Amino acid sequence: MLLNYLYKNKSLFVLYLVLAPINALVEVGLAYTMSVAVDFAMNGKLSDISQYIFSFIFYVFLSFLTGYATANVRFHLLEIATGSLKANIHSCITRVWVQDFQSYNSSSYLADLTVNMDMIRDSWFDTLLQLYPNTVKFIVATMAMFLLSPLLGFYVVIFAAIQAVIPSYFTKHIADLGKVAAVSQESHIAMIRENFQLLETAQSFGVIEFLNKRQSNSCRIAEHARYKLKAFNRFSYELSFAIGNVIYLGIFLLGAILVLSARLNIAAVIAASQLMVYIASPLTTIGGDLAEIKSVSKVLEKINTVLSFPSKSNGFIKKERFDYSLKLNNLQFSFEDKLILKNVNYTFEKGKKYLIIGESGSGKSTLLRIIANIFPCLSGSITLDNINIVDIVNDDYCKLVTLISQDSYLLDDTIAENVKFFLNASDEQVTDALYNAGLKEYIEKLPMGIHTKIGENAIQMSGGERQRLSIARAILRGCPILLMDESTSHLDEDTASEIEKILFSLQNVTVIFVTHQLRRDTINLADEVILLENRNLNKWSG
Fold first, then answer.
1. Which residue would you say has higher pLDDT here, 416 or 192?
2. CB-based contact 142:153 (threshold 8 Å)
3. How does pLDDT run across 473-530, given as a tens digit for each residue?
4. How far apart are the first and last CA of the chain?
5. Angle at 229 between CA 224 and CA 231, to 5 degrees
6. Structural domain range at position 359
7. Are 82 and 120 within 8 A, CB to CB?
8. Coil vs helix vs strand at 206
9. Which residues, other chains included, contact 536 with Cβ-Cβ below 8 Å and sequence gap of 6+?
10. What Cα–Cα distance (Å) separates residue 279 from each residue in 26, 28, 248, 259, 506?
11. Per mean pLDDT, which of 109-113, 194-198, 409-413, 467-471 is the most reliable?
């Protein structure tokens, strides 16, 4: 599956397939030209040597150009493949059902998009790309060696094969070390995220030093795992290199015997020593590359798992208006084998204001997320103007139904960008939405108005101001159905009352407001009060 990412730019991939063997032929030709020049020099043909010197210089220049071009194309292919894979992983993560997303550790996803991606790029994509030119170089150099001297050819190939086989003995151990390194890096990222989340609590309890020590230990473990993997890879490489030196010695000894017996000249021995590099090095590299590819097997499995996540299906019916009613039809939902909602039936009419009450944990928030098409229903259906919402194009449905929770996330950006939330809107439209949400006085006091930056999650804003900003975000979108999940539960009574009045006064908007706090003011604002009890909805009798 991952191979497809290397084919994203087919013309670039074909260019790489062409350049790699050209570069291999040039490098082998370089060794041959050098041997011919040496032969001429040793035989006193200095008058003819100049043309071979020029040929040699040409080959050096050509080797530089083809080598650079091949490497540059390879880097571009890596960039495209890794970028496409990252984008696809992120897309897969964002398109799964939220409950499926929440069942996994978010740090695991973060590792997939950072550390694991680096491992895939370096130990899989790059290694795989380099297997091709190394294989071509080995084949071309071997053919040249046999043409030069069959005896030297057999000697070099046999001992180079022995040299190449060495890494295979360490493959399993390298793979195990790779798995340990991947797990430790993932745990380290999780630790970083948790420490940031614990910062306020840690400061208040005076345990910052403990936090730092825990972070340091986590970093040490992760780095040690990476070190062991790199060190063992290096050991394998150095062992192969040492055997390569033995092969070199054998070439010169065997070459000397052949020269003394007049079966070979010195120039040919020099050429053989050069060709040996292009035989032994690629062969050794191929063995090491295969071991490295295997070392990221766990990461590959994890990436393939993410890519195979079941995603929300997109509907096929265009729906841009809400005209009549939203209906729940025998709705059922369960989470982790626990039944939360059972045979729920209810009709929400256009423009009406609904208040759903119930104890904490009764399933109120879950119900809103099912209506918002964030959670899937186990059975039954939800219809919008008699159309099943699963048949409505996702983007269209999102324009009709908006969910505001008690902890709506705010961007580290300006008020305007937070209200727009990636929507294309004018400053006038943003201002109107903010004023309608009750933020007129607040905006007028700011030095840069709606273009004032509010910081990450608007920590300098009060709870009421943040909630109003979230409401302004919904107002700007003009969604005819507004779902409010415990949106005022963390606010003082006066602020909560003000926000609820704003919500319930919105014209031509169906508001479904969920709360576990039974307040008379809120009840009086609603057209209907509904009790969620025993996994079902019923009108509240008071």
1. 416
2. yes
3. 888 888 899 998 887 766 677 777 877 888 888 888 999 998 877 777 788 888 999 9
4. 59
5. 90
6. 325-539
7. yes
8. coil
9. 341, 342, 343, 344
10. 15, 10, 12, 22, 77
11. 467-471
- State the residue for tokens 């070979």: 264
CA distance to 116, 338, 343, 531, per residue, from 535 (Å): 42, 11, 8, 10
86 and 171 housed in the same domain: yes
**How many helices (H) does the chain have, and how many strands (E)?**
20, 10
Domain membership of residue 320 (yes or no) is no
Q: Is residue 167 part of a domain?
A: yes
DSSP string, 54-68: HHHHHHHHHHHHHHH
User: How far apart, in Å, are the Cα atoms of 493 and each of 269, 459, 462, 520?
Assistant: 93, 21, 14, 12
Query: How is residue 34 written in tokens?
Result: 């050098």
Counted domains in the chain: 2
Give the residue from 246, 275, 307 where a domain finishes.
307
From CA 213, how far away is CA 209, in angstroms rounded?
A: 6
Separation of alpha carbons 357 and 364, rounded Å: 8
* Burial class of residue 482 in the structure, from the number of CB atoms within 10 Å of its CB (0-12 exposed, 13-18 middle, 19+ buried): buried
pTM value surpassing 0.85: no
Tens digit of each residue's pLDDT (9 = 90 or more) over 117-139: 777 777 778 888 888 888 888 88
Name the nearest CA neighbour of 445 among 462, 463, 429: 462
2-6, 356-360, 502-506: lowest mean pLDDT where?
A: 2-6
The Cα 429–Cα 416 span in angstroms is 10
